[in-house]
Each structure stands twice: as C-alpha cells, then as structure tokens.
C-alpha cells in the first residue's frame, strides 16, 4: 500500500493536481494539507492532526461535517437511485426539494430551476432574466446592475457581474460590462453616518442609475446583507427593501444571490427575510446540501415562469442545462439539511453562538491595527489596517492575512483571510469552547500578522 502521510500525499498531489484559487508556486514553501477525515467542525489530516474548519470549507458547510441525518439520507438514496437526467424525467428528491424550498422561501417564489454549483445558478438567473424580457418583446434590455465589491462566481457570466478585480481584471476582455452601483457597505459609509443612512444614500444613487439605464437593464443583482468575497462587507437590511421598491418602480428584476448567506448564516434562514422582501430570483447553493454535494437552485415567480410557457414553435423555452442538474443524491442531502432546520432549533442556537462570538471578538475593537470588527449572525470579520486613524490599508502584496493563515494552521484552526480581513464563519455545530479556541488563535495570528 502507498504511504498515507501528509508528506507522501502532498508530494503525489503536487505532481498532478492544479488547485483552485492558488498560485501553485506558493506550495514550494506552504505545505499542501491532505485531509482524510471530517466530523462536526473538525478536519483531520493524514498525520492525524486536527483543525477547526472555521471557514466552513469555503462557506459551504452549515451544520457540521458528516451530519448524521445527511449521511443516513445519502446512504439510503445511493441504494436506490444515483442519477438520472432531469429533462423528460423526474424523481422524488428533486420534486420534494422543490416543494420544500418553495415552502420555506420568501412568499411568491413558486418555481425551482436546478443547476449544480453557485456560478451556474448565477448564469441561470442572468439568462432567465434577459430571456424573460426578450419573451415579452423587450429586446433592448441586455444589461445588469451589480454593486461595487460584488462577487457572484467565476464563470464568464457570473464574473461579468463581479467587481473584485483580483478575480475579474485579467479576464476583462472576455466579460460584458455591468453597470456598477455603489455598494451600501457600512464600512465605506461617510463619517458619522449610520448603516441605515448609508443604505438610504446608496439607494438614491441607485435610483439615479435606474433613471438613466432602466430601459436597457434586465436586473439588479446583489448579495443580500453581506458581500462575502469583498471582505465580509456588511450593510443595512433597509437597502434590500428600498431595492425591491426601486425594481418594481423601474421594471427591472431583483436577483438575490444567497449562495453564501443562505441557510441561516445571517440569523434568518434567508437574508432577504430581514427586509421582508421577495426577490424575482433567489440563487442558492453551498449550504443547500449542508455543504456535502454540489447543487444549486434558482427560485423564481410564476410571472417569470409564465413568460416562457408556450407552444414549442413559439421558441420561448429556457433551454439551459447542466448534466448533473438536480442530482438525486444532492437533492436528498438538501432535503436532510432542511429537515435538520425543522427538527432542531438551529437558528436559536446560532443566536447564542453568535452572541458568544461577538463578546469574544469585542476586545479587538481597541487594537491599533483594527479598523472594524463587524458581524452579521454567524459571520464575523476583523478589518486589519496599517493606520487605524486614517484606515490606510496594508498593501495587498504584503500578504498580512497569509501570516495569520499559516499561524492558525500550526495551531489547528483553518482561517483563510480575505486579504486584510480575518473572518470567522464556522459550521453551526461549533461549541463555545471551540469558538474560544478559534478567537484566541485569530487574535494571536493577527498580532503576528500586523508586526
Ligand atoms: C455570493 C456568491 N455567489 C456565487 C458564488 C459562486 O459559487 P461557486 O463557487 O459554487 O461557483 C460564490 C462562491 O463563493 C459566492 O460567495
């Protein structure tokens, strides 16, 4: 048998695997970490060392790794039906999950279109919105409004409505240009302005954009409450309520990308609930399957569905497809996830965990290199700066976050800072003791990183 140590697996890996979001050269000095087991919030490497997954494996894992309900549902499903295409065929997991999503989603969302990852869900929503207007005879609507700092994925369509230059700048010649509206990000608010004040001011700017561009705009796309990839930038829920009103007034769609913030992350099952709004499209992935398998869903209204419903020869059908659309195993994992939300007081427990996290992070507010400690539900972030008074950031090339990442790994905690933002976004199975370990490690890692 081949050896199964960290060193042996890393060497084999580096000979053949090209990793996502990675300059592979970094692995000349940064060890590749082979993970062989996961349970709850813990990951175990091939040498037997354990790590708290404080970033929920790229924000996918909501309930903890290998939640027994999800494991049991998957084993049962695997004994019956692995996969069948969803065109011309259906299966109970897909239809039951659609029923269940419609039941728990904001009122008015009545149709579920499946895809198999977050970026694909965004492609679906963008294409469906454009195609809706086309089917209504409004071919001039071809553009999208996105927020500054937005991130919606990395396929070309999703990247076109993404405003994080690290990911999008290189590919600019291949992308369509969005209309960028200033983000209601509270960190970028004017001095003395409340988050609600920033939201109101940004809505005024959005109105001005819509006055100019609504005739050519299909939809406004946003990440509700938290712009995660931009550095966990947070904003007031009143922006979403105002956005809904503006979209109605100007006849453009509202696309809510809850791929990262859905499934309890922000304190409610869906972030849109906090503004009591129903978007025209709700994009879900990541936590949808509890973080177990790749699946995504785009929920929309009957008004949208009806615009595509016609005799075949009318040419109005939405012919978008992915091979693994609505995979039965993934749908069963999603049904089990929603079952856990029904059976266990997940959101109430999270309130207590979030309060503990907030209390433990509070001392960082006084740190000379911390400009902001912010939190929405089970997402907490610390903004590191060179100068607290001017908020001058550390230059990106200094890679301060990386020092924190390396330190935390040594201590048995997975933190993966976004540039100068150290964040904690753990699976909800985390205990207060484990939160203490994560926060203590983050604090020591920050002390090291800002030296
Ligand atoms: C808000 C948001 N939208 C879309 C995506 C893309 O999802 P995926 O990585 O599954 O393509 C992400 C991924 O991080 C995300 O955070």
Short description:
This protein has two domains: 139 residues, Aspartate Aminotransferase, domain 1, CATH 3.90.1150; 274 residues, 3-Layer(aba) Sandwich (Aspartate Aminotransferase, domain 2). 37% of the residues lie in helices and 15% in strands.
Structural overview:
The chain has 451 residues and is an alpha/beta fold. The chain has two domains: 139 residues, Aspartate Aminotransferase, domain 1, CATH 3.90.1150; 274 residues, Aspartate Aminotransferase, domain 2, CATH 3.40.640. It is built from 14 helices and 16 strands. The strands form four sheets. A seven-stranded mixed sheet has the order 4-12-11-10-7-5-6, with helices on both faces. Strands 1-2-3-15 form a four-stranded mixed sheet. Strands 13-14-16 form a three-stranded antiparallel sheet, with helices on one face. Helix 3 packs antiparallel against helix 11 and helix 8 runs parallel beside helix 9. The radius of gyration is 22 Å and the shape is globular. The chain starts with 5 loop residues before the first helix and ends with a helix. The mean pLDDT is 97. Bound molecules: pyridoxal-5'-phosphate (PLP). Its main location: cytoplasm. Homodimer.
Descriptors for this entry?
Aspartate Aminotransferase, domain 1, binds pyridoxal-5'-phosphate, alpha/beta, 7-stranded mixed β-sheet, PyrdxlP-dep_Trfase_major, biotin biosynthesis, Aspartate Aminotransferase, domain 2, 14 helices, S-adenosyl-L-methionine, transferase, 451 residues, 15% strand
């Amino acid at each position: 048998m081949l050896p199964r140590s960290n060193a042996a697996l890393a060497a084999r890996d580096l000979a053949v695997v090209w990793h996502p979001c990675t300059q592979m050269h970094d692995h000349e000095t940064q060890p590749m970490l082979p993970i062989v087991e996961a349970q709850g919030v813990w990951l175990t490497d091939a040498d037997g060392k354990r790590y708290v997954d404080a970033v929920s494996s790229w924000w996918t894992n909501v309930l903890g790794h290998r939640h027994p309900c999800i494991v049991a549902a998957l084993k049962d499903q695997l004994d019956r039906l692995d996969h069948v295409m969803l065109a011309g065929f259906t299966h109970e997991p897909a239809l039951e999950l659609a029923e269940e999503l419609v039941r728990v989603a904001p009122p008015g969302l009545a149709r579920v279109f499946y895809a198999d990852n977050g970026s694909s869900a965004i492609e679906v929503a963008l294409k469906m919105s454009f195609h809706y207007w086309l089917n209504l005879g409004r071919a001039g609507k071809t553009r999208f409004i996105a927020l500054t700092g937005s991130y919606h994925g990395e396929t070309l369509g999703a990247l076109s409505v993404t405003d994080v230059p690290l990911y999008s700048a290189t590919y600019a010649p291949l992308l369509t240009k969005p209309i960028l509206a200033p983000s209601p990000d509270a960190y970028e608010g004017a001095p003395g302005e409340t988050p609600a004040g920033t939201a109101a001011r940004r809505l005024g700017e959005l109105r001005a954009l819509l006055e100019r561009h609504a005739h050519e705009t299909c939809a406004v796309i946003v990440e509700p409450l938290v712009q995660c990839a931009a550095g966990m930038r947070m904003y007031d829920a009143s922006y979403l309520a105002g956005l809904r009103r503006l979209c109605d007034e100007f006849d453009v769609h509202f696309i809510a990308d809850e791929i990262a913030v859905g499934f309890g992350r922000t304190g409610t099952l869906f972030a849109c609930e906090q503004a009591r709004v129903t978007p025209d499209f709700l994009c879900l992935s990541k936590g949808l399957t509890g973080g177990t398998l790749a699946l995504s869903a785009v929920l929309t209204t009957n008004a949208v569905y009806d615009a595509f419903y016609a005799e075949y020869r009318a040419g109005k059908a939405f012919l978008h497809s992915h091979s693994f659309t609505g995979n039965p195993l993934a749908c069963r994992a999603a049904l089990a996830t929603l079952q856990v939300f029904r059976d266990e007081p997940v959101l109430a427990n999270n309130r207590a965990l979030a309060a503990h996290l907030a209390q433990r992070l509070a001392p960082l507010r006084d740190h000379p290199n911390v400009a902001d400690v912010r939190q929405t539900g089970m997402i907490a972030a610390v903004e590191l700066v060179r100068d607290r008074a001017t908020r001058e950031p550390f230059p990106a090339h200094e890679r301060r976050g990386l020092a924190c990442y390396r330190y935390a790994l040594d201590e048995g905690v997975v933190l993966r800072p976004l540039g100068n933002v150290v964040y904690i976004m753990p699976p909800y199975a985390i205990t207060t003791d484990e939160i203490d370990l994560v926060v203590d490690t983050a604090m020591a890692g920050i002390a090291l990183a800002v030296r």
